[in-house]
Amino acid sequence: MATIQAKLRKIGRSIVERNTNLGAAITAARLKCRITQQELADRLGISVRTLGRYEAGLRVPQASMLMAISRETRMSNAKLLAMINGDEGTVGD
């Protein structure tokens, strides 16, 4: 039983880590375009609060929203995914 709980904790940490990486990637993409949270939220048709939760890793955007974010920040989906995985330098725009 203790082993299962330890594995579940490890999986939970992995999920939180990935969400944090995704949030950081969204933030980095937005800052690279020199746009504010409010501007990006307006372009995406979402609230600033929702965008803030994406960037903080508290919420995970649906795939369609992730594609819209990459489109609005002029960042390729491959580049955004590479940033999430921590391979930022390996994929070109």
Word description of this protein:
This protein is mainly alpha-helical and 93 residues long. It has five helices and no strands. The longest helix is centred in the N-terminal third of the chain and has 31 residues, at 2-32.
Which key terms come to mind for this protein?
single chain, 93 residues, mainly alpha, 5 helices, 0% strand, globular, disordered C terminus
Short description:
The chain is an all-alpha fold and 93 residues long. It has helices at 2-32, 37-44, 48-56, 63-72, 77-84.
Per-chain topology:
Elements: H1 2-32, H2 37-44, H3 48-56, H4 63-72, H5 77-84
What's the rounded overall pLDDT mean? 79
Q: Kindly estimate the percentage of residues that lie in beta strands according to DSSP.
A: under 5%
> What structural category do the secondary elements indicate?
mainly alpha
Helix content: over 70%
Largest sheet: none
Radius of gyration: 15 Å
The general outline is: globular
Distance between the termini: 47 Å
Which residues sit in consecutive blocks of at least 5 with pLDDT less than 50?
Answer: 89-93
The total strand number stands at 0
- Give the ordered list of helices and strands: HHHHH
Please give the count of helices: 5
